[in-house]
TrEMBL record:
This is Putative restriction endonuclease domain-containing protein. It holds the Pfam family Uma2. Gene3D superfamilies: tt1808, chain A. Residues 14-183 form the Putative restriction endonuclease domain. SUPFAM superfamilies: Restriction endonuclease-like. InterPro entries: Nuclease_put_TT1808, Restrct_endonuc-II-like, Uma2. Coiled coil: none annotated. PANTHER family: GLR1098 PROTEIN, RESTRICTION ENDONUCLEASE DOMAIN-CONTAINING PROTEIN-RELATED.
Length: 190
């Protein structure tokens, strides 16, 4: 298949025809190709996913690491779905949202790990999409600064001011009050 044209609008039906070896996301019908993650990005992702997976073992919620497709729109027809993302880490607690193709609807939690090419998308476009979709907790991880910004969905369906954590901190997860993520181990990369 030829590369998608930025001036054309695409849907999830189109996404399904694209090369499986390439990572694409669609925002309001506009396709964005994702660069391959760096080694440090992968190490941070693996450590976070491991901590989440260990905690969630035997529970109803599930954790998924990229590539994992999330269709933020809940339309029944694949041609009507115009927002498709592949977060670095996705947690879904409602099993009815899961199918063989990923998640359809709002996950409970999403973690995005910044890279030089994704900063604007993660902090602006995805932030707004996740907030509108009702993602309860959204983390933006900044490997270079060893910081994590945690956004929690408020009763007014908007994200409040972020709680910001460094590599010296431990984060208590809002949707799992007895889970703490130790950022020393997350950022302990050589």
């Amino acid at each position: 298949m030829p590369l998608p044209k930025p001036e054309q609008k695409y849907s999830y039906a189109d996404y399904l025809t694209w090369n499986e070896n390439e990572r694409w996301e669609i925002f309001d019908g506009v396709p964005y190709m994702q660069a391959a993650p760096t080694r440090i990005h992968q190490e941070i992702s693996m450590e976070l996913a491991t901590q989440f997976h260990t905690y969630l073992k035997g529970k109803t919620c599930r954790v998924f690491a990229a590539p994992f497709c999330v269709r933020l729109d809940i339309e029944k027809n694949d041609n009507d779905i115009k927002n498709v993302v592949e977060p670095d880490i996705t947690i879904v607690c409602d099993g009815s949202k899961l199918d063989d193709r990923g998640c359809k609807g709002s996950p409970d939690m999403i973690v995005e790990i910044l890279s030089p090419s994704t900063g604007k998308t993660d902090k602006l476009i995805k932030f707004n999409k996740y907030e509108k979709a009702g993602v309860k907790e959204y983390w933006i991880v900044e490997p270079d600064q060893k910081l994590v910004s945690v956004f929690l969905l408020q009763p007014n369906s908007r994200y409040g001011r972020p709680e910001i954590y460094s590599d010296e901190d431990t984060i208590t997860i809002s949707i799992f009050k007895d889970l703490e993520i130790d950022l020393k181990t997350v950022f302990d990369i050589e």
